[in-house]
Specification:
Blueprint (H helix, E strand, L loop, with lengths): L1 E6 L4 H4 L2 H10 L2 E6 L4 H13 L3 E5 L14 H8 L5 E10 L7 H18 L3 E6 L2 H12 L6 E3 L6 H9 L3 E4 L9 H8 L6 E3 L21 H12 L3 H15 L4
Parallel strand pairs: 1-2, 2-3, 3-4, 4-5, 5-6, 6-7, 7-8
Length: 257
């Protein structure tokens, strides 16, 4: 069994053919999905999806790119949005993206902290996006974890080995996407080889980041098998070992039986 820990099933190129997307994924042993929120409109669609499909869970979050449009989304707003919905099992994606800077850094940081504090109060994981923002991401997580049992998942990890070690020291989980299959990802492969498999999850980030041999196409959860295969090669373990461990890690992190 495989769990896609981060996909965007509300995006039209997946949502408009969702039954077929799920069937293709299940054919490749992908049994559960976490569909990730990026805007308030996204959340409305995610609630429809999670109500319809028993094996799909969702999150609530404002992507760092979008934070300037949703400055009113604070901790109280988040808590009100997710209360009493057992299919919403995480907060995010949130975090910092200083590569594009579609929203001001100050606005991104404030939103990130509000999401973290909501996740901490709800006792569910925070799903973190970090691009060109390793120092600030780490400092915020370190500061916010001091007084809480915050559960953290760094999604689509492409950072440095040093950043990975700092995250592991904070007891964070790290999710690997199809980027690991790209020919130029040798440094990332070296970093992944240093991460204990007990802290790894896998994801597609579909419809983005299709792995080889599908690079350039619209990504979907069924393609996650290529990511698992690559990780198995890097770690010199079986694909089944990667699938079992990443599935168990997801269940442990998100408190699913």
């Amino acid at each position: 069994m495989i769990i896609d820990s981060h996909c965007h099933l509300d995006y039209s190129n997946l949502y408009n053919q969702l039954d077929d997307v799920i069937k293709r994924a299940e054919y490749n042993q992908v049994k559960y999905f976490l569909t990730i929120c990026t805007t308030l409109k996204s959340f409305d669609t995610i609630k429809l999806i999670t109500d319809k499909y028993e094996n799909i869970y969702g999150t609530f979050g404002i992507h760092p790119h979008e934070t300037k449009r949703f400055v009113n989304v604070d901790k109280s707003f988040i808590l009100d949005s997710v209360k009493n919905n057992k299919k919403i099992i995480g907060i995010g994606e949130t975090g910092l993206d200083f590569y594009y800077n579609h929203s001001e850094k100050k606005v991104q940081k404030k939103s990130f902290i509000e999401h973290i504090r909501a996740a901490s109060e709800l006792n569910i994981p925070i799903i973190v996006h970090s691009r060109d923002a390793e120092i600030d991401t780490y400092e915020i997580l370190k500061s916010e974890k001091k007084n809480s049992n915050l559960k953290v998942l760094l999604h689509c990890f492409t950072g440095s080995k040093e950043f990975a070690k700092k995250l592991l020291d904070l007891n964070c989980y790290i999710s690997i996407s199809g980027i690991i299959t790209f020919k130029k990802s040798t440094e990332l492969a070296d970093t992944v080889s240093s991460i204990p498999i007990e802290k790894l999850l896998v994801e597609t980030d579909s419809p983005y980041l299709a792995p080889l041999p599908h690079r350039g196409k619209s990504n979907e959860p069924s393609y996650i098998v290529h990511t698992i295969e690559k990780i198995s090669q890097i770690m010199n373990v079986s694909k089944e070992h990667v699938a079992v461990n990443t599935t168990n890690n997801f269940k442990k992190l998100f408190d699913l039986n």
